[in-house]
From TrEMBL:
Residues 10-108 form the Cytochrome c domain. It is found in: Mitochondrion intermembrane space. Electron carrier protein. The oxidized form of the cytochrome c heme group can accept an electron from the heme group of the cytochrome c1 subunit of cytochrome reductase. Cytochrome c then transfers this electron to the cytochrome oxidase complex, the final protein carrier in the mitochondrial electron-transport chain. It comes from Euplotes crassus. Binds 1 heme group per subunit. It holds the Pfam family Cytochrom_C. Belongs to the cytochrome c family. This is Cytochrome c domain-containing protein. PROSITE patterns: CYTC (PS51007). InterPro entries: Cyt_c-like_dom (IPR009056), Cyt_c-like_dom_sf (IPR036909), Cyt_c_1A/1B (IPR002327). GO terms for cellular component: mitochondrial intermembrane space. Keywords: Electron transport, Heme, Iron, Metal-binding, Mitochondrion, Respiratory chain, Transport.
Length: 108
């Protein structure tokens, strides 16, 4: 996909910048770090990455999928989506930034 092309209502090129600024401290696309690898996340089960130890808060949601709606809720406020989760991140208040980040994650 060409950088900057819109997908899922967001701009993956802008989403990549958001990922690098906000997410890459703990996440990569290809390997687990403090957080799980995120490439190919869209459509998978929540807490479904092999080899990563999820908090009980996310393990309890393991049968749910990372849909656009669930990714949006998580990115807005991880604490509201899964109270007690281990991610030390307040969330992304801008709906547009969340859509851009989701578009980027779906393009990976």
């Amino acid at each position: 996909m060409a950088k900057g092309k819109k997908k899922a209502g967001g701009n993956p090129g802008k989403g990549e910048k958001i990922f690098k600024n906000l997410c890459a401290v703990c996440h990569s696309l290809t390997s687990h770090g403090t957080g799980p690898a995120l490439a190919g996340l869209a459509g998978t089960n929540i807490a479904g990455q092999d080899g990563f130890s999820y908090s009980g808060a996310l393990s309890g949601k393991a049968t749910l999928k990372w849909t656009d709606a669930n990714m949006n809720k998580w990115l807005k406020s991880p604490a509201d989506f899964a109270p007690g989760n281990a991610m030390a991140f307040a969330g992304i208040p801008s709906a547009k930034d969340r859509l851009d980040l989701i578009a980027y994650l779906k393009a990976t």
